[in-house]
Amino acid sequence: MSNLKNTLVGYATYRGREGHYSFLLHRLTGLGTLLFLTIHIVDMAWFYWAPDMFEEALRLYRSWPFLIGEIALIFAVYFHGINGLRIAIVDMFAPSKWAIAAERNAVRWTLVGSLILWIPSAWMMLSHAVEASKGAAHLLTNLGIF
Amino acid sequence: MATREVKISQNYETIAWKWMRYSAILLIPLVFGHVLMQDVLVGVYQMDSAYVAKRLSSWFFQAYDIALLGFAFAHGVNGLRQVLRDFIHNPKVFRVVSIVLFIFWLAITIYGGVALVMATQARLASL
Ligand code: HEM
């Protein structure tokens, strides 16, 4: 149990600024994406194993809470992907470039890049939701809340 | 900056470390392509069984999805193992956890993989 506490206290109190935050964000986004991916593999596999449940899962994906989750997930995937690519390239081809000042800059650019991809994506996803709601009595009806 | 080359012997963990990095480069086109197509361009509101059937009847998307399943899920589960290593310091316990994660990975991969392969075979048979 003390392992758990020591490690978590370390995560919270280590003061490595940008490098530290990007480590935490990479971890969190990786684990969050894995949680979703596990559910997603199972529900998509229902296409073959359980077609009724598959339709039910698709209905759920069209609901309002899932739209918010989906938009958050997209950010997680973009950040984790760009940051992961950065880590992989530096580790494999230029390990001597792991210097603190450069790292701090790179973290900021990674965040900017993720936002540049995410903002138009989120906007498009929201407009799909609004479009889907057209013709319905109420936006929320078509989003599957009521 | 002064650097020093250190020879590291190959073992399971160094291979796993490299796996995370090689798979990362493949995952960019696979994962970003999937997200851009399915979530951003098409969107979940246009998806139903007919859409999925049509998509999977193309050998290209079937192969694409199989690659995505194989690489992304293995990368993610090994990543989880990497995170857990920070919390579990007893090598015996960690070994057990690794084996449990491996079985978990294998079971989900087979469940999804069979569906991807059979979905099209079942449809071909019904044509
Ligand atoms: C989009 C392309 C992706 C790239 C380029 C990428 C890259 C990376 C890299 C390089 C690492 C190792 C980090 C390190 O050891 O310091 C990593 C860790 C990880 N990745 Fe990914 N990844 C991608 C997609 C995914 C996906 C889809 C998932 C979820 C299933 C995922 C889950 C994880 C987890 C859980 C870790 C461990 C986090 C940690 O050690 O802190 N990744 N990723």
Topology:
The complex is a heterodimer of chains A (146) and B (127).
Chain A: H1 2-13, H2 17-49, H3 51-61, H4 64-93, H5 100-133, H6 139-142
Helix pairs in contact in A: 2-3, 2-4, 2-5, 4-5
Chain B: H1 12-42, H2 49-56, H3 59-85, H4 91-126
Helix pairs in contact in B: 1-3, 3-4
Bound molecules: protoporphyrin IX containing FE.
How would you characterize this protein structure?
The complex is a heterodimer of chains A (146) and B (127). By secondary structure, chain A is mostly helical. Chain A has a single domain (18-141), classed as 3 helical TM bundles of succinate and fumarate reductases, CATH 1.20.1300. Helices cover 85% and strands 0% of the residues of chain A. Chain A has helices spanning 2-13, 17-49, 51-61, 64-93, 100-133, 139-142. Chain A is globular. Chain B has 127 residues and is an all-alpha fold. Chain B has a single domain (12-125), classed as 3 helical TM bundles of succinate and fumarate reductases. Chain B has four helices and no strands. In chain B, helix 1 crosses helix 3 and helix 3 (59-85) runs antiparallel to helix 4. The longest helix of chain B is centred in the C-terminal third of the chain and has 36 residues, at 91-126. Chain B is elongated. The termini of chain B are far apart. The mean pLDDT of chain B is 90. The chains are: A mainly alpha (146), B mainly alpha (127). Chains A and B meet through helix 1, helix 2, helix 3, helix 4 and helix 5 of A and helix 1, helix 2, helix 3 and helix 4 of B. The complex binds protoporphyrin IX containing FE. Protoporphyrin IX containing FE sits between chains A (26-27, 30-31, 33-34, 37, 77, 80-81, 84-85, 87-88) and B (20-21, 24, 27-28, 31, 72, 75-76, 79-80, 82-83). Protoporphyrin IX containing FE (HEM) sits between chains A (26-27, 30-31, 33-34, 37, 77, 80-81, 84-85, 87-88) and B (20-21, 24, 27-28, 31, 72, 75-76, 79-80, 82-83).
